[in-house]
Structure to design on (208 residues):
C-alpha cells in the first residue's frame, strides 16, 4: 500500500508538470520541423531547343526504354563546391559551343539554302513578341548549320530573354535544333551565340 501510494503520488506530480508546461510557440514549432533549405539553382547559361519530334509508336517507346540504373548525382553542398561546379559546367558548355562554331565555319556554303535560311531567321527575330532588348548582330548559314550572334546591354535582360531568342524562329524551328550559350561576361554588353544544327533535313526544306 505504501509503495502503491508513492507511485501514485509520483505519477500525479509528473502529470501536473506536463499539464502546466508552456506550449511551444508557432515560431518554435516551425523552427523545430523546418526542412533544410534547398540548394540554389545554378545560373542559367544555356538554352537548348530541339525540333518537335514526330509522334512515336508505343512499341518504339517500349523498345527505347532501359532498365539500367542511372549514375548517382553528386550534389555540391558547400558554397565553394557549388561555385566550383558552376564554373566547371559553364566552361564545358562554352567549349562545346566553340567547337560547334568551328565546325560550322568549316562548312561550305549551300547557295540554295543558306540565303533563304538567313532571311528567315532575320524576319522571325524581328517578330519575336517577348524579345524587347536583344539586338541581332549577325547571321551566317552554311551547308546545314547556322550561327546567330545576339547581344544585350544588360546581363539581366539576357537571362530573361535567352530562351525566347532561340525560340520560334520561323520554318527552321521545325527541323533545326538551337543551342544558345551566353559568352563570358566582360562588364559591357552581354553577348550570346545561337548554333542551328539542321542536318540532312536541309535538302527537304531548301526548296520550300
Amino acid at each position: 500500500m505504501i509503495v502503491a501510494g508513492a507511485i501514485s503520488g509520483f505519477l500525479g506530480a509528473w502529470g501536473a508538470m506536463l499539464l502546466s508546461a508552456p506550449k511551444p510557440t508557432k515560431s518554435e514549432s516551425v523552427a523545430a520541423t523546418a526542412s533544410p533549405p534547398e540548394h540554389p539553382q545554378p545560373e542559367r547559361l544555356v538554352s537548348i531547343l530541339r525540333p518537335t519530334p514526330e509522334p512515336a509508336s508505343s512499341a518504339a517507346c517500349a523498345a527505347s526504354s532501359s532498365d539500367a540504373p542511372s549514375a548517382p548525382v553528386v550534389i555540391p553542398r558547400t558554397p565553394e563546391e557549388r561555385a566550383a561546379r558552376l564554373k566547371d559546367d559553364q566552361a564545358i558548355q562554352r567549349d562545346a559551343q566553340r567547337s560547334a562554331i568551328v565546325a560550322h565555319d568549316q562548312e561550305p556554303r549551300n547557295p540554295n539554302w543558306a540565303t533563304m535560311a538567313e532571311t528567315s531567321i532575320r524576319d522571325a527575330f524581328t517578330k519575336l513578341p517577348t524579345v524587347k532588348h536583344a539586338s541581332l548582330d549577325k547571321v551566317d548559314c552554311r551547308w546545314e548549320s547556322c550561327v546567330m550572334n545576339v547581344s544585350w546591354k544588360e546581363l539581366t535582360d539576357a537571362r530573361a530573354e535567352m530562351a525566347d531568342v532561340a525560340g520560334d524562329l520561323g520554318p527552321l524551328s521545325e527541323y533545326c535544333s538551337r543551342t544558345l550559350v551566353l559568352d563570358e561576361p566582360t562588364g559591357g554588353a552581354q553577348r550570346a551565340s545561337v548554333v542551328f544544327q539542321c542536318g540532312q533535313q536541309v535538302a527537304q526544306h531548301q526548296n520550300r
